[in-house]
Amino acid sequence: MNITLIDPPPFKIIEIHDAPECSRLGLGYIAGFLKNRGISCSVIDAKSEMLHLGEVEERVREQKPDIVGITAMTHEVTQADIVAKLVRRISPNVIVVLGGPHATTLPDQTLVEFPSFDAVVFGEGEYTFYELVTAIEKQGSLEGIQGVAYRTKNHIHMNEPREFNKNLDALPFPAWDMFPKSTTYSIITTRGCPFNCNFCMRVLGNKVRRRTPRNVIEELERDVEAFGAKFIHFYDETFAINKESANHVLDLMIERGLHTKIKWDAITRVDVAEYELFRKMKVD
After folding, report:
1. What is the rounded distance in angstroms from the CA atom of residue 219 to the CA atom of residue 197?
2. Domain range spanning residue 49?
3. Number of domains making up the chain
4. What is residue 121's three-state secondary structure?
5. β-bridge mates for residue 210, sequence order
6. The domain spanning residue 143 has which CATH number?
7. Do 135 and 188 lie in a common domain?
8. Is residue 172 assigned to a domain?
9. What are the backbone dihedrals phi and psi of residue 12, each rounded to the nearest 5 degrees, phi first?
């Protein structure tokens, strides 16, 4: 069974997110999870490679997927719909699955509004998409797979949500070997955010779940050694929400000499950041 993961191309380049320096972290985790369980897949990272629709179509024809997983934020869902229709023209029997923030926010409404999608994965996608793939591979039903909404003929089914993964260290690292080569990569030390900003839906929940600092450093070292990383985006919703853990990560970066090999930035709030935390990297 052939599986293809797609980050759809933008309509036009307006901002940095339309032509990002690094591939999408969520797709990297999905690819890594499937690979870890012996399921091969391919990736079409149209944003990072700046592919147009015609080039996406060529790749799909070459890969002949049975299942296509597309990621989209809300402002990208129309682009995802266009890609889904393109895929279905090439292979009418392909199963098209949407994941990402929009699918998580409006799973059933998305299926109503966009008939091009057969199913959506809402919430964290690693275990959910894997279970969906194995169910389809066995020609089984999607009924009961937590975190999945799907259609059968003219009916839309909403399964129960899946609990957030409590053991982030158990997740395989993102499979960047399947993505375009870059010198910039994203990494997370936590998932979730406890704050209640009115402009954010906290797609990964409002309870912070942490990776161990050593697990984070193992991934950082791999990204530097295997992929030539020069710049790292800490993509936590609120980096340093736990200052002890964040300090531990930075101390290990210094201990392993990573602070001399990479530059980095982080997303956080001004009321949780401390000057001392970021001063740590300015050492001889």
Report:
1. 30
2. 3-158
3. 2
4. strand
5. 190
6. 3.40.50.280
7. no
8. no
9. -160, 160
- 145-151's contacts with Cβ under 8 Å and 24+ in sequence apart are 147/121, 147/122, 147/123, 148/119, 148/120, 148/121, 148/122, 149/107, 149/108, 149/110, 149/111, 149/119, 149/120, 149/122, 150/111, 150/118, 150/119, 150/120, 151/111, 151/115, 151/118, 151/119
Residue 155: which pLDDT band, with cuts at 50, 70 and 90? very high
What is the tens place of the pLDDT at every residue in 164-207? 999 999 999 999 999 999 999 999 999 999 888 888 888 899 89
pTM summary value? 0.93
- Residue 91 domain-assigned (yes or no): yes
Pairing label, strands 190-191, 184-187 = unpaired
In 3D, which of 53, 41, 39, 45 has the Cα closest to residue 71?
A: 45
SS3 262: coil
Residue 173 maps to a domain: no
Nearest CA-CA partner of 27 in 47, 12, 56, 2: 47
Residue 175, domain member (yes or no):
no
Determine contact, residues 239/188, Cβ cutoff 8 Å: no
Six token digits for residue 52:
């147009």
pLDDT tens digits, residue range 261-281? 999 999 888 887 654 454 544
